[in-house]
Amino acid sequence: MSNKKFITTFVLIALLNGIALAGWFYVLSVVKDNFDTINEIRSKIAVDDKKIEESSSLKKIMTEATGEKQKIDSIFLDKQSIIKLIEELESIANKTGISIDIGSINMFSLKGKFSQLFHYLVLLENISYAISIDKIDFQKQEKSSPASEWQANFEISLNSFINI
Length: 164
Fold this sequence. Notes:
Layout: H1 2-75, H2 79-96, E1 99-102, E2 107-112, H3 114-125, E3 131-140, E4 150-158
């Protein structure tokens, strides 16, 4: 009987040890799977962190370039900024005290004293838009108007027009 008790005890201990060993291997496999998952997540986080850092750098570069882009955009004209150019042509006419008649963006006429028309020409050459003055025609007005009244007809080309 004692032999039987010993064998039963031995079998029970071996069975418990087998169950404990199987449990241990199960726990280790779960931990290993979790460890692999954690490593994959860490790799993805590292990649995402790098993307965020690159994105931040790109945003910083874009922010720094905004000022330069605005300077460049102020020179080139699109359909909306044609109105601004016309307003600037009229503003220069008001500053010089002459009247302006704009037929098109490329052709306009001015009336005033010769010195005022010449001053307008100087200011026109210094506006912030890239234009070429193709033709200027100065004419002294007829005798019916004041003797100092002149007319200038301008033809200009827009060198920086963007047709969007």
